[in-house]
Design brief:
The complex is a heterodimer of chains A (about 120) and B (about 110). By secondary structure, chain A is mainly beta. Chain A is built from no helices and 11 strands. The chains are: A mainly beta (about 120), B mainly beta (about 110).
Chain lengths: ~120, ~110
């Protein structure tokens, strides 16, 4: 079945560092990918929708200069957290939209635990 | 706008007990409804879905019926196992392949 790979699974870095997270669709082409943020014991908050070859659409309240999203190919989207600070620590999850014949609307990666010291 | 409300957890059960996790929704039109499961430290896995009224989704012993009259999609399982311990999210999309709106999640803890 369709698989989404997210890397790295865990990042620990110092405040001020920029961190890149990759999301790959392994066996299908994903024209649309989504980035979510999940705080402890809370639901997923959609940050942005990424369409291949065009600028991402950010949800209200999400800083586009802080969270840079690139979707340069049909199988890869990246999220870069620029100049990360402790308040950016969170669990970030990507997903890729399935094909119209697919059973489910989005396939999720396993998430990235980001810890900023 | 769309919204999903699900019961707060944690829900604590003994093995082989009956499980119900309530979920209600608000949406325009006729949404598709989903239950996702998240095991510790992992992403989300689709558990089951229903795309129209009166549809029943089922998988791994879990069931949920799309009730348009009560705008509900309650998750049930007749006999839970320790391995079912996880966080369960109810979600909807206004079309099958549109953006997902999630509930806040319900943690299920099953003890031996």
């Amino acid at each position: 079945g369709a698989v989404v790979s997210q890397h790295p699974s865990r990042v620990i870095c110092k405040s001020g560092t920029s961190v890149k997270i990759e999301c790959r669709s392994l066996d299908f082409q994903a024209t649309t990918m989504f980035w979510y943020r999940q705080f402890p014991k809370q639901s997923l908050m959609l940050m942005a929708t990424s369409n291949e070859g065009s600028k991402a659409t950010y949800e209200q309240g999400v800083e586009k200069d802080k969270f840079l999203i690139n979707h340069a190919s049909l199988t890869l989207s990246t999220l870069t957290v620029t100049s990360a600070h402790p308040e950016d620590s969170s669990f970030y999850i990507c997903s890729a939209r399935g094909e119209e014949t697919d059973y489910q609307p989005q396939h999720f990666g396993d998430g990235t635990r980001l810890s900023i010291l | 706008g769309n919204s999903v409300t699900q019961m707060e957890g944690p829900v604590t059960l003994s093995e082989e007990a009956f499980l119900t996790i309530n979920c209600t929704y608000t949406a325009t039109g006729y949404p598709s409804l989903f239950w996702y499961v998240q095991y510790p430290g992992e992403g989300l896995q689709l558990l089951l879905k229903a795309t129209k009224a009166d549809d029943k989704g089922s998988n791994k012993g879990f069931e949920a019926t799309y009730r348009k009259e009560t705008t509900s999609f309650h998750l049930e399982k007749g006999s839970v196992q320790v391995s079912d311990s996880a966080v369960y999210f109810c979600a909807l999309s206004d079309r099958v392949y549109s953006t997902l709106t999630f509930g806040k999640g319900t943690m299920l803890l099953v003890s031996p």
